[in-house]
Amino acid sequence: MSAINACMHLFKPGDHIIAGHDIYGGTYRLFVSPFTDFGLKFTFVNMQDVENVRKAITPQTKCVWIETPSNPLLNLVDMQAIADVARGAGAITIADNTFMSPYFQRPFQQGVDIVLHSTTKYLNGHSDVVGGAIITRHQPHAERIGYIVNALGLACSPFDAWLVLRGVKTLGPRMEVHQRNALAVATALRQHPAVEKVYYPGLTDHPHHALAKRQMTGFGGMLSFDVKGGGAQAEKVMLAAKLYSMAESLGGVESLIEHPETMSHASMTAEARRGAGITDKTLRVSVGIEHQEDLIADLLGALDQASK
Ligand SMILES: Cc1ncc(COP(=O)(O)O)c(C=O)c1O
Q1: Are residues 148 and 271 in the same domain?
Q2: Most CB atoms closer than 10 Å: which of 63, 102, 126, 301?
Q3: What's the structural domain count of the chain?
Q4: Residue owning the nearest CA to atom 16 of ligand 1
Q5: Mind listing the pLDDT tens digit for each residue in 77-123?
Q6: What gap in Å lies between CA 206 and CA 202, rounded to an integer?
Q7: Does the global pTM surpass 0.90?
């Protein structure tokens, strides 16, 4: 969040920023308040159709904020198309690349100007750091962001930086296992009668599978699924799963499960959540690197138990 905070200080009161309507709830909260209170103007649109970005542009638009795949529904947006529209309007693009990590997605290749990561997640990978990283290909941005980070006191401690550097050494092998396990869990989940829908871009019938293949070099370790019967059933499944700790974070070696409606996206208004397609029957899973068969057996067992 401090990295996002630093990026927002590139802008001035009156500047307009377009963001996806299905971004991480904490980012949405930061934009709505305090940054709206400070005079920045935000428009949240469904960026899956780039026309919605084009239509939202005003003479004051300075930035388009991209998060792909989105949290928690794993929708993808076409970064190249959005970067082209933004550039044409004189605005920059910033992509939150936390979900894929640089191992699976490099937004600079699609023309994005600034890439941001929560290093709390995959880059560190061991759930023992809270931090962020901002990477830009423009020297003036780098200088300004360096100044802002120092002036606002947003830098992380040397020990936390060291922990992230340790984690990065195993990023590649970890991401490969996260992905392998996520595809196996997604495939198993969709065959369970208590599951209504599975959201994972690696599934060939995911609505953005073709874009995922073009834009990313893998599909990552995050997935979500809808439980038949609604919120109460979803909560039962979450609590019955033993190998998946109930927690909001993601990207660590251990598997986590959470309920976006009441946890990661609780800070969005109910109306904003519905607009983004988030409902109380959705559970989000950060698939870890544990043994694949254990992960599948535990989650399917939790679904069986909740259905009794
Ligand atoms: C996509 C995304 N960006 C940013 C953040 C914020 O990360 P942090 O908890 O490190 O501040 C999160 C946290 O869940 C996230 O999912």
Answers
A1: no
A2: 63
A3: 2
A4: 24
A5: 999 999 999 999 999 999 999 999 999 999 999 999 999 999 999 99
A6: 7
A7: yes
